């Protein structure tokens, strides 16, 4: 356990330090309140000094927004290539997270946030962090994410392909982009599966919230095994399966990638960009060296029944960003002794695809999301 130290009213203080992004303990922490000027807070944060907020909660949010505006004064530097633009964007985002992450709040022994006009964050923190372990300092930016995740967990997200809601948990990738869900909902099932739905089995690898496992069950697959390497995802998927009354059809298993046995259909929606995530939420987007993608391809043939297929749901955004080529993807498919049966494409419908101010707008505008139907090569 890491410990953060500061002095308040001439008295040395300490608390447990927690960061979901594994940010190091600040080397220096000072107390800040409603009298703290945004320019001073921004300068100290850029220098690496953390500010433990002891004023009004809403004023803390305003201060963080003011610090963000100061970060935005310098326009992003364009890259000479798509890959350089991506790495510059990631570097800028990382710097922004480091600076804004220096504004801290203190959670009491029961996760109470004792600031004026502060919301009750106890349940949200319990869901995200588990049982309290004493006074804990966290960044305000992270806490706001925890609060937002709690609201998603309560209200859920509508999934049109299911006609109902999925309830994401903190740190689990939420199905806010429904085009990939629709691909799984409408792609033709493998012939062997269509002819024997009553005995069909499917694997959903990297299930996250369990949304694709639920879609497969709604399509008539009798037994779906949903796996994930994340304990948070396994808990989330289990809860959603129970909410959807699909416990007799969907088995949540893990942590791991492939379960034991073989299936008629193996579905995998790996992170789309081969880059290093900076926190748990980004693990649904970034996959260093395409580890999950290559793991799926390498193990697919050994886990398919005769006549079965593997469905790889993948965006080509990495190709437009110069992070992976189409040839590299197809070479990996061939190296795994697989063949492409078909490829079904769709265009993204999320708002960022139309945001001309996005530094990666050119790549996002050209992006296509595909469902690759794969089978063992003869």
TrEMBL record:
Keywords: Methyltransferase, Ribonucleoprotein, Ribosomal protein, Transferase. Gene3D superfamilies: Vaccinia Virus protein VP39. GO terms for molecular function: nucleic acid binding; protein-glutamine N-methyltransferase activity. The keyword Iron-sulfur does not apply. GO terms for biological process: methylation. Residues 1-16 have a biased composition (Polar residues). One of its GO terms (cellular component) is ribosome. Pfam families: PrmA. Residues 1-21, 68-91 are annotated as: Disordered. PANTHER family: HEMK METHYLTRANSFERASE, MTRF1L RELEASE FACTOR GLUTAMINE METHYLTRANSFERASE. This is Ribosomal protein L11 methyltransferase PrmA.
